[in-house]
Every structure is written in structure tokens, then in C-alpha cells.
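Appendix B, Record 12. Input sequence as logged:
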Amino acid sequence: MHEACLDAGTFSRKAGIPVETTESIVALHTTGERFGELCQIAEPTLAVAYHYFLDDDTVDPFFELLRNTYDGPVVLA
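Logged structural output:
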């Protein structure tokens, strides 16, 4: 289990704030791609990403980034 954060572009669009601002925030958090990198190292049976915005327009961007680095089972909570 690990916390996860929106990528800068999705965060900017959802919050209505400049992408430069969200890039600063996201730099201190775990995006889908970084989560996937951690999963590659840990090799979990089931990876759980929590503390994430579970909206119709946020789930797909997370998995698109995640699948760049990890293809195992993942649940968003």
C-alpha cells in the first residue's frame, strides 16, 4: 500500500490552477508512473494506491502512467 497523486496535467485541469504550480506539488508525491516503479521493486501480490482522487476523469490517467512501468495487479483506494 502506498499513497498516490494525480499527475501534474490532470491535477492542473481538475483544480483549475497553473500546471507550474501542480508540478511543484506533484514533485513531492507519487504519480502513477512512480508508483509503478515502486511496485517493480517491491513485487507485491496486489498493489494498493490510496489517497487518490477516484473520479471518472482521474482513474484512466493514473493507469496510463502506471502501465509505463508496471503491469501487475493494482487497486486504487
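The chain has a mean pLDDT of 95.
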